[in-house]
Each structure stands twice: as C-alpha cells, then as structure tokens.
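Spend some time on the protein that follows and explain the fold to me:
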Amino acid sequence: MDATERRDMLKNVQQADFVVVELTLYTNTHPDDKEALTQWRLAIKEAANLRKMYEKRFGPLSLHSIPSEQAIDTGWRWNQAPWPWQM
C-alpha cells in the first residue's frame, strides 16, 4: 500500500467534500441560481465517485460506507492503522 497515493486520494475526497458543503451553503441562500444547482449536483457525484474509489482501495471512511451484510458476515477493519485522520 502506497502511503503517498492514500494521502493524495484522501485529500481529493476532502477537497470534493468541501466543494459540496460550500455549494450547499450557497444554494441554501440562492435557491434560484440554476448554474449553482447544476454545479452542486455535479459536485455531489464527483465527491461520491472519489469516495468510492478511495474506499475500494483503502477501506471505508465511515459506517455508512459498509453494507450491512458485509458488517455482519465479515466485519470491518476499523482497528487497522493508519486511520484517515492519521494520514
């Protein structure tokens, strides 16, 4: 596992999430801005895609990322370092 790749992918997820939050705040106060709403929808898709790519390679970032069947059948590896905030 390449630590640099993991750190870079996590940074991309964090940046995409930041864009979603900022566009959400903006569209909350400017609900008629159609361009912003389009950007917001695209940002959500991009953030989800980046998160999915990261999680496929390095594991879940949150409990919401674990299918319930997997958690029951095989468990998950929260106790394996490094954790996302340790990157």
